[in-house]
Please model this.
Amino acid sequence: MPGNEAVQINNVVGQQANLAITNHGSDWYYTVCAVMGVSTLAFMGLALRKPQGHRLFHYITAGITAIACIAYFAMGSNLGQVPIQAEFVRPRSHWVGSAGTREIFYARYIDWVITTPLLLLDLLLTAGLPTPTILITIFADEIMIVCGLIGALTRTSYKWGFWTFGMAAFFYVVYNLLGTGRSHASALGGAPKKTYMLCGVMLTFLWFLYPIAWGLSEGGNVIHPDSEAIFYGILDIFAKPVYGALLIWGHRNINPSQLGLHIRDPGQTSEKYHNNGLHNGHGVTGPDRAVGTNGTHTTGASAAGAGAPTATV
Ligand code: RET
Model:
C-alpha cells in the first residue's frame, strides 16, 4: 500500500521550492490536522450539553480549531505555499537544486489572521473588557499577522523591518492583556479572574515563541521546513485545543451575564442556568460596572448596578 504521497502528487513544476517539506513533514501536518478536527468535534459536542445562550465560548473555540484543521490539511498536502528566495541561503545536502528558494506557507497566515483574533476574543470577553478595547487589541493583532506574512514573502533583509513592526503591534497586544485586561478580570473576581489569569499567562508565554519560530524559519532560514512544521505544530496544539479546553473548562461556572454578555435565549428552560447563584441579581452586570466614572476602579463587584450600559449579543 503506498504511503502518504501528497508531497509528490502536489509537487507542481515551477511552484516547488528548493527547500521544502518531506513526507515526514507532511505526515506531521496531517497529524495536527486530525488533532484540530477531533478537537472541533469535541468542542461542538460539549456545546450540546449547554443551553444555547451558554455556548458562545464553545462556538468561538470550535471555529478556531476548525479553521486550523483546514489550514493543516493544506500544509500537509504541500499546498497553500509559495517558493521564496531565501535571504540567507544555507548550503545543505537536502536542498534540491541551488537556486536557494524556501517553501513559505501563506496558508498559515490565512489561518492566523482569522483565528488569533478569535483566541483573543475568547480571553478578552472573559475579562469583561469594553468593546473598544477588544476591537483595538484585535486590530493590533491583525497588523502583527499581516506584517509576519509580508515579511515572510520578502526576499531581502527588509523582511526584518516587517518583523519589527509586527513585534511593536504584538507588544501593544500584550500590554492590553497584562494591563487593562488583567485589571478588569481582577475587578470581576471569582471564576472569570481565575480563568483569565490561567489562560492569559499561557497565551502570552506561547505567543512569544511564534516570532522566534518565524526568525528561525521564514526569517533566517535556519531550520528545515520539516522542523518548522514541528515547531509551529506543537505551538498551535497548545495555543488552540489545549488553551481552548482550559478556557471552556474555566467557563463551566461562569454565567455570560456576569461578563456583561446578555444573550437572548427565550428557549432556555433550565432553571439551573437562571438561578445558579452566579447572577448578581442587580440587572446590570456590565464589564464597566467596577470602573468609576473617572476611570478608576471602585469596590469591584459591590459596584454592580452602577449603570454602565451593557452589550446584548
Ligand atoms: C509573527 C512575525 C512578526 C512578529 C510577530 C509574530 C507573531 C505571531 C504570533 C502568532 C500566533 C499564532 C497563534 C496561532 C495559533 O494556532 C507574525 C510570527 C510578533 C503571536 C496563536
